[in-house]
Fold this sequence. Notes:
Largest sheet: 6 strands, mixed
Shape: globular
Structural class: alpha+beta
Oligomer: single chain
Strand order of the largest sheet: 1-2-3-4-6-5
Order of helices and strands: HHEEEHEHEE
Strand content: 35-45%
Number of helices: 4
Helix content: 25-40%
Radius of gyration: 15 Å
Amino acid sequence: MHEVNIRDYTKAQVDAWAPADMDIESWTKSLSSKFTFVAEEGEKIAGFGELEANGHIDRFYCHQDFQRQGVGTQILAQITSKARNLGIKKLFTEASITAKPFFESKGFIVVKKQEVERRGQRFINFAMEKLI
């Protein structure tokens, strides 16, 4: 997050979005309520994505060392397959400025540009969706 999104967000924004003092218990609880897909290369997590039962793609991330190598594409394919198996007809997400081109390349359309706040920092992101 800190190395990848720094192209599009300030250091203060990135630190607010992915703080060093993250609440692990809250993170673990959040993960348990979603379908989580993880790509690994050896001992490293190359990327991950989460699907909620309503079609929402929550966290979606690809490590900087694995950018543009198909990791995100594979994770999204697994998410899409699971969504279809669940009878979900539409995937949707809130994409960062950085992630927007990836999701557009996969057929997602921007529904609206929005400004969100986290830990006192304001961010631009994009509500995006795709029918499957």
